[in-house]
UniProtKB/TrEMBL annotation:
GO molecular function: hydrolase activity
UniProt name for this protein: Serine hydrolase family protein
Organism: Bacillus spizizenii (strain DSM 15029 / JCM 12233 / NBRC 101239 / NRRL B-23049 / TU-B-10) (Bacillus subtilis subsp. spizizenii)
InterPro entries cross-referenced by the UniProt entry: AB_hydrolase_fold, RBBP9/YdeN
Amino acid sequence: MTKQVYIIPGYRASSTNHWFPWLKKRLLADGVQADILNMPNPLQPRLEDRLDTLSFYQHTLHENTYLVAHSLGCPAILRFLEHIQLRKQLGGIILVSGFAKSLPTLKILDEFTQGSFDHQKIIESAKHRAVIASKDDQIVPFSWSKDLAQQIDAALYEVQHGGHFLENEGFTSLPIVYDVLTSYFSKETR
């Protein structure tokens, strides 16, 4: 079955931002089915809208599906995995600058992180789990991404100087995401 990757942007981002187009292009060149899912109202995100959008793709998910989320895309994916019944465990989830608690500087996003997450259900929903975080992220504290990795039993990949992995910080490509994904792909083909 063909490998499939869905890239989920964060707050104020769309399919044309940051390193998403680069990752999609790299994966397509490898013969991997890759899509960047535009989320509704990126400037005024609502959890319900994002869950509805993600649910639209629910029937396409299978054991060779990988979800790559950035920033607000991470709690959105976690909430989605909590709320759905998967027919099969996903291949994996990769959370870039992931967080699972309220960001003091971005109260507008609080509804995504209100209440605790069902960590066990999230763990069971994806065979491979990774969190990629930068030590100098000014938006999501590194320690929060580290906590998230522990809560969902994910591998933590630390980047020394990545900021929030935004294009205005120079991130129009992000090879570490590609490398982690392809390492998971190769484990599946053995």
